[in-house]
Design a protein that fits this description.
The chain is an alpha/beta fold. The chain has a single domain, classed as Rossmann fold (3-Layer(aba) Sandwich). The chain has 5 helices and 4 strands; from the N terminus they run E-H-E-H-H-E-H-E-H. The protein has a 4-stranded parallel sheet, with helices on both faces. Helix 4 links the parallel strand 3 and strand 4. Helix 1 crosses helix 5 and helix 2 packs across helix 5. The protein is globular and about 35 Å long. It starts with 6 loop residues before the first strand and ends in an 18-residue tail after the last helix. The C terminus is likely disordered.
């Protein structure tokens, strides 16, 4: 086992009550037994201490993943600086992160779908205000995108030394 501190992957959405906490917990579940990685989440407009959306809790409970104990965190420049990788749910979140931390490198800031060759510029739909089915669709979308992210960042092929450029195109 490595004595180096674990690498941190920070997921970012709007309020840190739906998408980013689901991504955090799904990634932790998919990477269970990998002590070299730590997963966290925050929101660009979060109200600190808010619980996860009850429907997000239900959607993850269906996967056997607890989310009841989640408390929202507001994204800070320090969180961005300390994370090894920052993963935004939308292009809008990515722009807000760039504004907060203008020196963030392209190799550190990613869109969740940025590792998917089929839809590298796609946003993760915000389920807030929707039905349980809406939350399930967001959960499934996140889970699918995480597979590509994990292959690219966490379990890269032996010949790959760095993360691919996942900057994507910026659409106005």
């Amino acid at each position: 086992m490595s004595s180096a501190p674990p690498k941190t992957l920070l997921f970012v959405c709007t309020g840190n009550t739906c998408r980013s906490p689901m991504a955090e917990r799904l990634a932790a579940s998919l990477c269970a037994g990998m002590p070299d990685w730590h997963f966290a989440s925050a929101g660009v407009f979060a109200s600190p201490g808010e619980p996860a959306s009850p429907l997000a809790v239900d959607a993850l409970r269906e996967r056997g993943i607890p989310l009841e104990d989640h408390k929202a965190r507001a994204l800070s420049p320090n969180m961005v600086r300390e994370a090894d990788h920052v993963v935004a749910m939308t292009a809008g979140h990515r722009e807000l992160i760039r504004n907060m931390a203008p020196d963030i490198s392209k190799e550190k800031l990613h869109l969740l779908h940025g590792f998917d060759p089929q839809k590298p510029d796609a946003d993760v739909m915000d389920p807030f205000g929707g039905t349980l089915d809406t939350y399930r669709m967001a959960r499934d979308d996140i889970e699918s995108a995480l597979s590509n992210l994990i292959l690219a960042l966490i379990r890269p092929p032996p010949h790959q030394k760095t993360a691919p450029n996942t900057e994507g195109n910026t659409h106005s």
